[in-house]
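Can anyone check this?
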Amino acid sequence: MSSTDFKPKDPNVKLFNLGDFDLLSGETIPNAHIAYRTYGDPNNPAIVYPTWFSGTITDGNEWLISLPNKEPSTRSLDPSRFFIIVPALFGNGESSSPSNHPLGFNLPRATFYDNVRAQHKLVYEHLGVKGKVVVIGWSMGAGQTFQWASQYPDFVRAAVPFCGSARTAIHNWVFLESLKHTLKLDPKWKNGQYDPSDPPVEGLKAFGTIYAGWGFSQAFYREDGFNKNFGLNGATNILNNFWHAWSTSKDANNLLYMLHTWQHGDIGAQPTYAGASKHDLPQSKGGRFGTRGDGGEVTKEDDQAFERALKGIQCPTLIVPGKTDLYFPPEDSEIEAKVMGENAQLEVIPSIWGHWAGGPGDSKQDVKWLDDKIHDFFKRHGIVQ
């Protein structure tokens, strides 16, 4: 398949051709493209709302956008007030990904830095947005939100990262490494060269099984949350009909690609802030990703670069962790907010839904709580009247 032959399943999803797109690693994605969808009038103030891990534009990322005949109706991402741009992550199956690019599993790996640079080109060169944007996102979308605010501080009016982080914590990295190694153990994976008609189903099921212990909190399981909210009673039923149904619906190489991006999340690992820390910067054309993202040591210089990047964020930022999120615990967000100082406002979702408190919209009570906080934040900073 040529990448130019790829057509999104949803006709509302558009493609912006990036050409041969150079990455921070020194590698190049040949004939790259970024997928996106817009909502609302282009003359309105713009909101950039990136996709999250495994999510596609309309199968996952519409849940916070106020659309006709959709419940719950939200106020913060209202297309009657804003021009909402939803760009897709590299690797999600819509933007350039192993599943739609001739290089397949060998597609050069993109970082958050690369994704956001592509999104900046989309927003300002292709869509012609004028002025600053608001950036908002859940999970890996939060990572991209922090990246936007640090990478392009002069272009971001306000930022709302929720249930995510500015740097992937070591505990989080270890979880992701367990997913990667488990999936690759399936003989059908064949070093990424599997037949799409015969995917590594057992590896994908194992991937989903590991996820099952992380996505929701212990309290959610203890209080019979799956039975009450999804009609699933019993651990095996939960695994088969929720987690395995999710994981086996995904392309294995796409998951591994996005996982790499997640593991290498670190707003300090960019030229503006790295300074003496060279661990996460390319050393030469065709160079390497940083040792920290690959599981190496965290140096004092890395930590200093991370703090410089947080302090480089100039816009008001609403940081919203979930109280029981096992991926991105509120303690990590407290550190981010403390370093950022007066630019940061911290609000913790008081929910037992774990990471799912922040999305993708299953907990209506948490959606309302989040929407109210974002709307109040928008009013406080003059984004809405």
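Reply from J.R.: I decoded it. The domain at 3-168+267-290+298-380 is CATH 3.40.50.1820 (Rossmann fold).
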